[in-house]
Amino acid sequence: MASKRREGEHPSVTLFRQYLRIRTVQPEPDYGAAVAFLEERACQLGLGCQKVEVAAGRVVTVLTWPGTNPRLSSLLLNSHTDVVPVFKEHWSHDPFEAFKDADGYIYGRGAQDMKCVSIQYLEAVRRLKVEGHHFPRTIHMTFVPDEEIGGHQGMELFVKRPEFQALRAGFALDEGLANPTDAFTVFYSERSPWWVQVTSTGKPGHGSRFIEDTAAEKLAFEEQLQGWCQAAGEGVTFEFAQKWTEPRVTSTDDSDPWWAAFSGVCKDMNLTLEPEIFPAATDSRYLRAVGVPALGFSPMNHTPVLLHDHDERLHEAMFLRGIDIYTRLLPALASVPTLPSES
């Protein structure tokens, strides 16, 4: 029975499952296999392919479909290639087998976060190219490493490079979350993470010795960060691994041409949108920080939120529906008329 299902499987679903089997799992992702997979897609689709090594072994892969008006800023479709670790004993199926059950649910780490979106971008572009479409704005698809561990050797470095500047991104789409209701969630900003590393030094030795001035003793929890260091005395410091104090907000006003294009397609397709602030942190924050408006959107409704969870899965019909949605979104966004800043 399984072989019959494979024979009749939609080619986009087959490609999705192929990508899920690439073990780009932290802390040692097989990025080489992912890049090779993406290069093959670029070749098959007739897209430009650029590989930007932002750190040792950390490559951002950029697939490009040139627009007809190079003076306009581009549309950036971002996704990350890495996935979080798994506890196999809690999974019904091998998390890297991309098992599809009899009901059509595809199990795999990255099924929701966010290999589905990567393939949906690619398949939407493939459909549009096959149909002979051309759009004014260039479409870049960026596939970045290390998002799941903060993006410090991924998007954070990429946005500072000349290769990123050369993309001339005017607007971006990135990951969102599934929504168990009939609605689709779209994220226009996100929380501002503060990751703090506190260092305390003191006299070492066995706890039975009642040593004075130990490192742990000096961490006074009654006061907050600055107070800790002052109260602890010499040798106690802290530093921020991340500190976001000015969250950027992407406009969801109908007067904004990017939002008007995005929401207009959703309205035409009778999709209910729920704009929210993302409860976690994604690579969108790095894009917004350099002035590129971004929306977090993973087109999955009637779907439980299972990113990072055991038995992460997505129904094949929902996956295919997402391709339909992007096939409508991309023409609208890549055809946004010339903006005042571009004229």
UniProtKB/TrEMBL annotation:
Keywords: Cytoplasm, Hydrolase, Metal-binding, Zinc. One of its GO terms (cellular component) is cytoplasm. Binds 2 Zn(2+) ions per subunit. GO terms for molecular function: aminoacylase activity; metal ion binding. Signal peptide: none annotated. Its EC number is 3.5.1.14. The keyword Hydrolase applies. InterPro entries: Aminoacylase-1_M20A, ArgE/DapE_CS, N-acyl_aa_amidohydrolase, Peptidase_M20. This is N-acyl-aliphatic-L-amino acid amidohydrolase. It comes from Monodon monoceros.
